[in-house]
Fold this sequence. Notes:
Blueprint: H1 2-8, H2 11-21, H3 33-37, H4 45-72, E1 78-82, E2 87-91, H5 94-110, H6 120-154, H7 158-163, H8 165-188, H9 191-195, H10 200-217
Antiparallel strand pairs: 1-2
Helix pairs in contact: 1-4, 2-4, 4-5, 5-6, 6-8, 6-10, 8-10
Amino acid sequence: MGALRDQAMRVRHWDAVREKCKSDFQIDDKLKLNDIYKLNLGKIQEDIEEITEQAVQEAKMEKTLKQVSDFWNEIKFEFQPHKTTGVQKLSLSEENFEALEENQTQISAMFSSRYLSTFEDEVNKWNKALASISEIVLLCGEVQRKWTFLENLFIHSEEVKKELPKESEDFVGIDKDVRRILADGYEKQYALVYCSQDWVLPDLEKVEKDLTVCEKAL
């Protein structure tokens, strides 16, 4: 644990120690054991323990955030072509979706830490980013499921076009929207890049509602 605490200490933690012991000592080769003894750290033992505990917990948080960042900056969607439409349906692999859920749990747990403040902005950023990936991947799956079923009817079935002319006409616009949304996913490739765009989720939500209307008309 001692080694971990030494590795965890950052400039901000040493500054806190200096403030508590009222000394401007420097951590370098010139620092001698006698210099440390003169600091009378025993008198502020509780303060020192709190600072070192903060350093350890922040180091753990920093490590997790780096792992999350390194992982999600490299993750790409998996793609599957839909028949001969030229549309590439997107998804996350099962392994990556499990990692997503695990990372969301890790990030959420950080909000209960009393040492959150140092990394609060980054934790908030990743909480939002991972939530967006999860929402978009799940909703995209639902949109693709409905679209693949309805596209076969409203685009390729003359009988359906004849019986439901208005819905068929509306579906042409919906079809264009679905293709546009999925095409951008195929262009971006990376899940984080695609899902970080503000327009993707609201556009998917609108398309999903429109698809539901067409589905109910059948």
